[in-house]
Automatic annotation (TrEMBL):
PANTHER family: LUCIFERASE-LIKE MONOOXYGENASE (PTHR30137:SF6). To bacterial alkanal monooxygenase alpha and beta chains. GO terms for molecular function: oxidoreductase activity, acting on paired donors, with incorporation or reduction of molecular oxygen. This is Luciferase-like monooxygenase. Residues 10-305 form the Luciferase-like domain. The lineage of its organism: Bacteria, Pseudomonadati, Bacteroidota, Flavobacteriia, Flavobacteriales. It comes from the Bacteria.
Length: 334
């Protein structure tokens, strides 16, 4: 059985604003909760006009409070931006409010450009190099084995918040394997090393108190609709989003255009290459098309869980996408 989960950044579309986006994100969370999605993760990004999940832990609490069963967490918290103690206190508080429903995914990237990273944390470079040590510090803050430390995150101790290592390289896979932690790969924007990273993680995995066997999540782009043609049109918002990132134009999520081919042809060769690299792990089409393609992907990667990322401009189309994707996974799991 391969569970399906959702990675969400609360994208602000061109015709919307942050407040309206939060309402739509709440409705989305309630739908996937009802459908039986396993997790809803929110990603920390900064200095991006179209991303409303900046204060990630705040939004996690909001969505956890409006859902019943789904696990809500970070995909991820960019640890070099934060003190491990503060992260432990925030997620310990969330775990006290919503027991057994909070996940803590950790990344070592800034989730922003370098200037913004330095505005958040002046010693960002040093903290990014200390990522393994800061992960260990977090594990200790959550542990029962910390009673004599001079600095403790009392509210976090014993809450059992699962720590995940997130990444897009073999380096993060090696760290997750050495610590016996579950591993999620960012195939939705950097899929090139996915297979190599999963193989390295599984080969080097060392069982821990929290995890006896390797566990992997692949994050992928998914745009599902009634027909292949409609899904391809809806996916042009995703391609425009990555185009804007490549060109650093700072635009909100754009409405779809009629032709993906014409959109790609309109890009410079360099931008088009970047966009194709970032979108290489995208599943677009009708239920039948995506079911066939995902079956091959799951067999090839051996993933334990699929996490979809779906920047779809129209809210109702996005909700429909979630329903179709759940049907796809239900069919694959039969």
């Amino acid at each position: 059985m391969i569970p399906i989960s959702l990675l969400e950044l609360a994208f602000i579309s061109e015709d919307s604003n942050a407040r309206s986006t939060f309402e739509k994100t709440k409705e989305l969370a309630q739908l996937v909760d009802t459908l039986g999605y396993k997790r809803l993760w929110l990603a920390e990004h900064h200095n991006m006009a179209h991303v409303a999940s900046t204060a990630t832990s705040v939004l996690i609490g909001h969505l956890a409070g409006h859902t019943q069963n789904i696990r809500v967490g970070s995909g991820g918290i960019m640890l070099p931006n934060h003190s491990p103690l503060i992260v432990a206190e925030q997620f310990g508080t969330l775990a006290q409010l919503y027991p057994d429903r909070i996940d803590l995914g950790l990344g070592r990237a800034p989730g922003s450009d370098i200037q913004t990273a330095l505005a958040i944390q002046k010693d960002f470079y040093e903290q990014s190099q200390r990522f393994p040590q800061n992960v260990e510090a977090l594990e200790m803050y959550f542990s029962h084995k910390n009673p004599y430390a001079k600095v403790r995150a009392f509210i976090a101790e014993g809450t059992g918040v699962p720590i995940w290592i997130l990444g897009s390289s073999t380096e993060s896979a090696a760290l997750a394997a050495s610590k016996g932690l579950p591993y999620a790969f960012a195939g939705h924007f950097a899929p090139r090393q996915m297979l190599e990273a999963f193989e390295l993680y599984r080969r080097n995995f060392k069982a821990s108190e929290t995890l006896k066997h390797p566990y992997t999540i692949a994050a992928v782009n998914a745009t599902a609709a009634d027909t292949d043609q409609q899904a391809e049109m809806l996916s042009t918002s995703l391609y425009q989003m990555f185009q804007n990132l490549a060109q650093n134009t700072g635009r909100f999520l754009q409405p779809p255009v009629e032709s993906l081919t014409e959109l790609l042809d309109s890009m410079s060769e360099q931008v088009r290459l970047q966009v194709k690299q970032m979108t290489a792990c995208s599943f677009v089409g009708s239920k039948e098309t995506i079911t066939s393609n995902l079956k091959d992907f799951i067999a090839q990667t051996g993933v334990d869980e699929l996490m979809i990322h779906s920047p779809i401009y129209d809210h109702q189309e996005k909700l429909k996408n979630m329903m179709i994707m759940k049907e796809v996974m239900d069919d694959l799991n039969r």
